[in-house]
Known about the structure:
- The protein is an alpha+beta fold.
- It has 2 domains: 5-43; 51-190, Glutaredoxin (3-Layer(aba) Sandwich), CATH 3.40.30.10.
- Helices cover 39% and strands 19% of the residues.
- It is built from 5 helices and 8 strands.
- An 8-stranded mixed sheet has the order 1-8-7-4-5-6-2-3.
- A hairpin with a 4-residue loop joins strand 7 (156-160) and strand 8 (165-171).
- The protein is globular, with a radius of gyration of 17 Å.
- The relative contact order is 0.20.
Amino acid sequence: MKFNKKVLGNILFLGFFIFLFTPYGLNTRAKLTQGVTYIKTLILPPKAETIENRADINTDFLLRGIVNATDINLSELNEKVVFINYWATWCPPCRAEMPSIQSLYDDYKDKIEFIFITSDNKSKVEKFYSNHNYNLPTYNMLSNAPQEINTRSIPATFILDKQAKVALSEFGPTDWNNDKVRKLLDELLAE
Length: 191
């Protein structure tokens, strides 16, 4: 079977239909969303920008460390590869991609910088992490995000190269623990 936008649309519609008629419960819906996310990622994996097409950003972006993190300014991370994810504890698509992000974090936390941005408060995030055995460095924004990585939709993920340019941007849930993402991270580390 050839996968195209119509097939993907049908798969996502079916997933949404099942999601609507599934008994209420974040864990059940998160599991369904994980399945749809996995299929979406197989068909349309995140695609990185070529070096010449990467957008420069203003890295003056203040963040308050709320869980597993201390306060930082994004400018402190120049010359490092940075994985930025906007999410919330109440968001089923965000919850669906968290296991894959935790696996990626476990393998790359000593090589790249991870920043998880939420508007949730510290106690809500700590409870969520405790219930799911996550230990991701999580922040609240203290200043406006740079335009190139500013979003109102969640989940949204941006990967910055060592020159603080946007190498990848992805909106919606994705399986982040896959060979293509790992290859991209390894390439960005080697640049």
